[in-house]
Design a protein that fits this description.
The chain has two domains: 234 residues, Porin, CATH 2.40.160; 68 residues, SH3 type barrels (Roll). With 312 residues, it is mostly beta strands. The strands form three sheets. A twelve-stranded antiparallel β-barrel has the order 8-9-10-11-12-13-14-15-16-17-18-19.
């Protein structure tokens, strides 16, 4: 079927594509810099050079703050070098250490999770710096997004609803719901061809360690031709199921994976997510695909993307 010609492109673009109109919160989340609060709380100070210092805040003279660290003693940090200060007790724990939260928990390489964005949050993702997608949360449950390429084909829009069905006492065994629809066209490359998917899924875990199962229907509508004659519009549909997972192992790295079953075709593979500061991630994976009907396939296709969180 013709739809299989677009399987890989649509798998990359098919769920929860994000809005490129995301708003950057220009006020850094470092209100503590403007106070003389020197209560002995453990804090994580993120510096402008993307490094961080953890310790107790012991002084603040308006120009610099003093952090008492375990290994280096007292460190005086000029405020112009500071990007954020976060009370460590509010941060997730991975391997017994406090880490910055996963800034991009609402999707994997390209498939969505049920973990919601908060109102006003969003992100922009660049795949090979050729394809771009983004999401913006209008409310704590509802977000909209788009995706396209540098050559503006395909051009796709989406709407996504998320909700927390269950929140465990320890915050590690939560259950989240996601459902949405995404649709668009190949624009000027093939004006009569339209693509779309409707899906629903469940995510189990939290932002740092989770697994997601999504299911839906992938569709394509196009004009069929035979010997240059228009045979009218044709519609193809395929069932689509995805299994995705993310396991944070330290402050800088997660192991991730994503596998799709699209009719008789399976695509996906394992990979990693690298964290840089509070808002940036780089995803790398080795992907492949196989036709289960004929037993042939390919593996070893590199996937790389950069994502920037927008908002707080």
């Amino acid at each position: 079927m013709k739809i299989l010609k677009h399987v890989f492109a649509l798998a990359v673009f098919c769920c929860s594509f994000d809005s490129l109109i995301s708003q950057v919160n220009s006020q850094p989340a470092i209100d503590s810099l403007n106070t003389a609060d020197t209560t002995l709380k453990y804090v994580v100070v993120e510096l402008e050079n993307n490094t961080s210092i953890t310790g107790k805040k012991v002084s603040d003279d308006g120009r610099e703050i003093g952090i008492m660290t375990v290994d280096k003693g007292l460190i005086l940090i000029p405020k112009y070098q500071i990007r954020t200060i976060t009370v460590s007790a509010t941060m997730p724990t991975v391997g017994g250490k406090r880490v910055f939260p996963n800034p991009h928990p609402s999707r994997y390489f390209y498939s969505p999770s049920g973990i919601p964005l908060k109102k006003g949050e969003g992100y922009i993702q660049a795949i090979y710096f050729l394809a771009y997608q983004g999401q913006y949360a209008l409310t704590d449950h509802f977000s909209i997004g788009i995706t396209s390429t540098l050559w503006a084909s395909p051009f796709l829009v989406n709407m996504k609803y998320t909700n927390t069905l269950h929140k465990s006492a320890d915050g590690k065994k939560n259950i989240y719901l996601a459902t949405g629809i995404q649709a668009g066209s190949l624009t000027y490359i093939d004006p009569g061809t339209y693509l779309g998917i409707g899906y629903a899924g469940l995510t189990f875990g939290n932002a740092e360690s989770n697994i997601t199962i999504n299911g839906g229907v992938l569709g394509e509508s196009y004009i069929g031709y035979s010997y240059y004659y228009d045979e009218g519009r044709e519609n193809d549909f395929l069932p689509a199921i995805s299994l995705c997972w993310n396991q944070r192992v330290n402050s800088n790295l997660s192991f991730m994976g994503e596998v799709w079953l699209l009719g008789n075709t399976i695509v996906g593979g394992p990979g990693m997510r690298f964290y840089s500061g509070r808002k940036n991630t780089i995803d790398f994976a080795i992907l492949g695909g196989a036709d289960l009907s004929y037993g042939d396939g390919i593996f070893g296709i590199p996937f790389i993307s950069w994502t920037r969180k927008m908002g707080k």
